[in-house]
Design a protein that fits this description.
Oligomer: single chain
Strand content: under 5%
Distance between the termini: 56 Å
Structural class: mainly alpha
Radius of gyration: 19 Å
CATH topology of the largest domain: Serine Threonine Protein Phosphatase 5, Tetratricopeptide repeat
Helix content: 55-70%
CATH architecture of the largest domain: Alpha Horseshoe
CATH class of the largest domain: Mainly Alpha
Order of helices and strands: HHHHHHHHHHHHHH
Length: about 240
């Protein structure tokens, strides 16, 4: 198949070994070692070729599941990001959910329909938060993060992410990442959640404070507050 041929042509064994270390939950043999910039260029090339030649290489690839390599899954997500029809995008990403098995693919989410269909996407992302599958739940958090950055978030949305309860590191880390971003826009709300809300679990609280401490955007006074609360949380 053309897509697989193009992907293998971009493979770098050293980069594959590097990426495999970033995703220790997967078999290293599943990595080709393709840089994200090259994957994004391949998306443009494939979509452009389909338009120019009246072919359907991309639709055929999107219906060929499961994929063997992680980079195929990332390419799949990047192609879905380009979809301009919300209903079709929602159908296609729902079909893709059973095959999400690592953070690298999930974090490639970035649908272009987000701003126009933010209300629809929010409803869908909220169902993902309730899913039992680790990486579907992470996808829900990442979708909320994208919406936070593009259109903002209601208090209830920020609170719901803060209240996520999970034994999975990759869900809790995403929630911590989200709360750090929310802290930039709604510092008083996030302060209250992290310092006073007992429904915020310890893992999420610790990871959020860690992210706030690590961020270069955190003002000195807020950094001092976060460090102090982080120490109390560890105690």
């Amino acid at each position: 198949m053309k897509v697989q041929f193009d992907l293998h042509a971009l493979a770098e064994p050293k980069h594959a070994a590097f990426n495999a270390k970033l995703v220790p939950t997967l078999d290293p043999a599943r990595f080709l070692g393709i840089r994200m910039g090259n994957l994004r260029q391949l998306v443009k090339d494939l979509l452009g070729a389909d338009r120019e030649n009246s072919t359907e290489v991309v639709p055929a690839f999107l219906t060929t599941l499961p994929h063997r390599f992680v980079e195929e899954d990332i390419l799949h997500m990047l192609l879905l990001n380009e979809q301009k029809n919300y209903d079709l995008w929602a159908e296609q990403i729902t079909d893709f959910l059973p095959f999400l098995d690592n953070w690298m693919v999930v974090d490639a989410l970035g649908p272009k329909i987000l701003k126009i269909h933010s209300a629809d996407l929010l409803k869908l992302a909220q169902t993902w938060l309730d899913d039992e599958r680790t990486y579907v739940r992470r996808l829900g958090v990442v979708a909320h993060l994208l919406m936070l950055r593009k259109v903002g978030a209601a208090t209830a949305e920020v609170t719901r992410i803060a209240h996520l309860s999970s034994d999975e590191y990759y869900v809790n880390m995403a929630a911590g990442w989200y709360l750090q971003a929310a802290f930039e826009r709604y510092p008083e709300l996030v302060r209250e959640l992290l310092a006073e809300d007992e429904q915020v679990g310890v893992p999420v609280r610790q990871l959020a404070l860690r992210k706030i401490c690590e961020s270069r955007k955190t003002p000195p006074a807020d950094l001092a507050w976060a460090k102090e609360l982080r120490q109390k949380t560890k105690a």
